[in-house]
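User: Last request for today: this protein with s-citryldethia Coenzyme A, please.
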Amino acid sequence: MPQDTPSNDTLHVRDSRTGQELALPITNDTVPAMGLRQLKVQDDDFGMLSYDPAFKNTVSCTSRITFIDGGRGILEYRGYPIEQLAERASFEEVIWCLLEGDLPSRGQLDEFHAELSGYQAISDTVAKTLAGFPRDAHPMSMLMALVVAAGAQEPDARNVRDPAERRAQAKKLVARMPVLAAHVWRHRKGLAPVTPDPSLSYAGNFLRMVFAESDDYTVDPVLEKAMDVLFTLHGDHEQNCSTSTMRVVGSAEASPYNAAAASIAALSGPLHGGANEAVLKLLASIGSVEAIPAFMEKVRNREAKLMGFGHRVYKSYDPRARILGQIAHDVFELTGRNPLLDIAVELERIALAEDYFKSRNLYPNVDFYSGLIYQSMGFEPEYFTVLFAIGRMPGWVSQWDELMGDSEQKIARPRQVYLGERQRTVAPVDER
Ligand code: SDX
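Assistant: Here's the final one, the structure of the complex with s-citryldethia Coenzyme A:
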């Protein structure tokens, strides 16, 4: 039962097959699904279950990390509104906040930066793993492999029941993600990796590891700020597909490196984090503002999806998409306006006026504009979701740590309704 405000509210159900009546306690507007198992026709029945494909109406856990109000477009990390975090806190402050539950003091932040910097050396297992990939392999596949390879240098990471070890490994994963991601970028370009620079911010160090062509490379402060805020916007998002993957794999007491690799796999899907790459390819394929009406006809006929639109939780404008608008302005001021922006803005204008989208509460999500910004910063579409993964790692490891400390949790193992054939006879192969 989710611990919170006790209440005497109950949900009364009556099983018309037997007349059995049940009073299920209501807590936080939920009822315990296990309570349904009391409903049986025969005494030796397993008992009733709830059917919920894709878990659309299922609460898998209680959490104190991220709050989303999808109807009002509200997103808070540990109670802090995303708008204030994006404006007033660095990504390292946000990482600390997600992990520790509050924002760090100046002293804590300085210590944290030094600690993360100390974790950024990686073993040559990573380099050897990367060398085995062709340069044009998808960056998300390479990133998955490198996270697992990085775990090879951390045998203690499997001590998942030790809270101190969990916290240490969480910080190591967060610290190493930009290094691994930069290694992937440099490998694709046939360039040697760049050594991390602890004197730079988390975002600045990442940009330098990716783009530096000489020792005197300096990070542009506009791009550093944009990267920092983009990481913050992707920090956590409660029980989305990839975070649920982290929790499911973590529930088996697997190493957090292996769970994180599984989460990267989930994130790579175009319906999830891979949407930012899909949006850019869609905008390029539409090609011009004049071609938008023909594309929208395809959407109405369900021959195409407007990638970057829609969300399982937000039935209003994704608050992160709003913040991206200001970042886009600042980046394009520096880099020049992304020519695909005109198509994106016109697509959004038409979609928001279109009954097909309005009737389905379809609004731009975090992926609709982020790719345009990434591209103007110098990243290629195939790499966009790697940037999402760097930002999301603090969320994944914070949710994993919370799961491992939750006494109500066990290994995840949903049930099924079997509709297939039963008790068939196996004939010898020559008689089939
Ligand atoms: C992320 O969960 C999270 O929090 C995720 C995320 C995070 O931070 O972790 O926010 C990041 O993944 C954002 C979403 C990125 N994905 C995309 O932009 C891909 C395009 N969007 C869709 O595939 C879709 O909107 C989803 C997957 C995001 C949500 O899908 P749902 O909730 O399962 O909704 P659905 O597919 O059942 O759609 C409901 C209706 C359907 O029409 P009908 O069958 O009712 O007639 O809306 C239509 C859908 O066809 N629809 C779309 C659409 N999204 C939904 N039609 C056209 N274009 C779209 N993008």
